[in-house]
Design brief:
The chain has about 180 residues and is mainly alpha-helical. It contains eight helices and four strands; from the N terminus they run αααββαβααβαα. The protein has a two-stranded antiparallel sheet with strand order 1-2. A two-stranded antiparallel ribbon has the order 3-4.
Length: about 180
């Protein structure tokens, strides 16, 4: 029982450590030392127009940070004991949006989405980007066929963390278990 307790506590301590590393990586925008690709200038401008203060990827409301959970499964020290660190598939934001899907889109990049521009939508970029002067800063206008093409680039969070910290994880678990 004492060994089982020590092993369980060591696994949970390592999971808590990795949870903190994941959150710190998102806050610093460089998980595992791999910097995120910055948000597009248009994304930042639209966020500002909508009253969203954050200019960082994956931190629009803080829901993504709260969603990173530590979940032990099985009997501590048992053959099937594990501790999950990450975002559960059923995790939702307060508005009901699935956070897991957003993280997957961010981790691997999203599909290219083509949106037909409606007459109502035509005024939005002009307003959001601060009028004609701000639009000119973005460069010459590109030819348009009345469609908006959106592509979310990959911004890996979990993979760089596991690559950076995973190799030493077993040693930290053993060290913690021995100390208990």
């Amino acid at each position: 029982p004492k060994v089982r307790h020590a092993v369980g506590a060591a696994f949970r301590a390592e999971a808590k450590f990795l949870q903190g590393v994941l959150k710190d990586g998102i806050k610093s925008q460089a998980p595992g030392g791999s910097a995120y690709r910055p948000l597009a200038a248009t994304t930042v401008a639209v966020r500002k127009f909508l009253g969203i203060k954050s200019t960082k990827a994956l931190i629009r409301t803080g829901d993504s940070l709260k969603a990173i959970k530590v979940t032990p499964e099985g009997r501590a020290g048992g053959a099937k004991y594990s501790v999950f660190v990450g975002i559960l598939m059923n995790e939702k934001s307060p508005s009901g949006r699935p956070i897991y899907k957003d993280f997957m889109r961010s981790e691997y990049g999203g599909p290219t989405v083509v949106i037909a521009i409606t007459p109502k939508m035509r005024a939005f970029p002009h307003l959001a980007l601060g009028g004609v002067k701000a639009l000119r800063k973005l460069g010459p206008p590109q030819p348009s066929a009345g469609f908006l093409v959106v592509k979310v680039p990959p911004r890996p969070t979990f993979e760089p963390i596991w690559k950076f910290w995973g190799a030493t994880s077993a040693a930290r678990i053993m060290s913690t278990a021995r100390a208990l």
